[in-house]
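Standup, Tuesday
Yesterday: got the pipeline producing structure tokens again.
Today: sanity-check two examples.
Blockers: none.

Example 1:
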Amino acid sequence: MNTTANTTPPGPPPPAAPGAAPRGAAAPAPGGPRRRLAAFLHRHAPLRLSLLLSAPMLWLGVAYLGALAAMFISALWRTDTFTGDLVRELTWANFQELLTAEVYRTIALRSVGVAAAVTLIDLVVAFPMAFAMAKLASPRAQRWLVIAVLTPLWASYLVKAYAWRVLLSADGLLGWGYGLTATIITLSYLWLPYMILPIYAGLERLPNSLLEAAGDLGARGWRTFRTVVWPLTFPAVVAGSIFTFSLSLGDYITVKIVGGRSQLIGNVVYDNIGAANNLPFAAAVATVPVLIMLAYLAAVRRTGALENL
């Protein structure tokens, strides 16, 4: 018996769903425009970096460098000695007075000496504390010790400075009196956390295996510190010293509170802004710590410590 197959001609394709790509068209890349933008930024890494840094660099240029530029320009003006008015005429008279008057050279050298002494004291105190926190304390104790180091920063600057004024006064617990020694002690206490934390971070990155290897090779404590610990933590020491040195160099409040009759750079700037009403000369004096810090950073950079931070 012959049977004929019942064949039905193919009909038209079903219509595409709403929003779907038409047949034969290339499917869009997964993720859409957002993914294409990410791929573009990945291929152009310098552009991505410039976009990320544009806002911070703009703020740095306007708020910081702009303020420094305004200060340098103000230092080239002068104040009329008769009327006290500000005369916007460019002159080097303020800088000439700074260079020729012996009293300002003495104050500058004294300020550098105080900042160096504070930095050295903080380093001597901070290094053993940071080493104990990073290498001897348990992980749980480390967290509590970091909190203990940070706790003084929660208190007011003036409260801590006046507390030392009470301690150092003639009738106080220590009774050492006021002066440069009191200034150095107070500043050392105020800026000590800024030295402890960078050194602690540097020591925490130091592998314990290096210390163990030095001990296995017969190196004693001092030689291990000199040949292993100190070279690897020196960048962290530099980071801490930048904080303590710069903060001490420009401080004037502590000197007013416990410094007695001592004068530092910050006091000269403050007195010329307030009592003397000589803004151009105050701006000229304020350039001194800026130049000192630039020289300090240049000297540190030659050691290569900044590249290892």
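Example 2:
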Amino acid sequence: MSRLASAEPAADRRRSPQPPVRGPSGRGPLGRLAGWADRRTHALLVLPGVALLLAVVAYPIGFNLWNSFTNRNLSFPVTDWVGLANYRWVLEDPAFYSAIGKTLVWTFASVAGQLLLGFAGAVALQNVRRAQTPLRLGLIVPWAFPSIVLAFSWRFMLDPIVGVLNDALLAVGVIDEPLAWFGNESTAMPAIVVMNIWFGFPFMMVALLAGLQTIPAEHYESARVDGASFWQELRHIVLPALRALIGALVVLRTIWVFNNFDFVYLATAGGPAGATETLAVYAFRVGWTNFEIGRMAAVSVAMLAVLVVIVAVYLRVLRPDRDEEA
């Protein structure tokens, strides 16, 4: 009996519920704060990046938008609210529409040339079996050039007096006298477009080559068994597989080329006689030559609107799911 009597209280103690373990919230304000931070760690990790993005993107855009509604001018200390007057001035300026046309030519010609040359280079490198890495490194050299080095190198090569291009064309009889490629209204825009294509095609080539290497070899083997030619493989295998990548590259390069200022300004400064004055150079002239910051801000907002329309059209045309919806 004594053993049973002593065992029953021990069994009761084992069956009795234990007090719950109190978490961090039960340790006062500091514990509750630690529990709140633990539940929201993902948000706290993202917060510094969001704050930095707001500081370097949202604030400048907001400040520029505010300036576009003022008559801010570096020559006068007083700034007044003028409403839509700057936008009205921009829309009534013929030079603005001329700059839009030249910007579209500059952007579309450059991106198309970079895409075609980059795609050709990627397909060629894909079929190289030896020394592919040295070739890839050699072809990507133009992308590594700083803007100022690139622009002044091309200005030297196309110089009408000491330029190597004129000497080569004169030697083979293509031209009868040296040409001022950047100083002639009919050749200035094609010259800077060719310069930009030479600079930008390595980026396209490397990205497209990476995309080509993700296509399984079995697809090509099956096509060849069925008697497909190179162009049929290109049309039915390569292009569908790279459609999303091509769309992303075209959108990115369009944004970068559309907003590009340094290439055009360093090569021609928008000349001769405004033949290469893109929207970026036009905005620079309004703001930093005429010191009309308010009007320059309105031009930049108009640039953003034009770019949004172009990108929206690109995304509509190049989206990868278009065929599936059809």
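Quick observation on example 2: The first helix runs from residue 2 to 15. Residues 5-67 form one domain.
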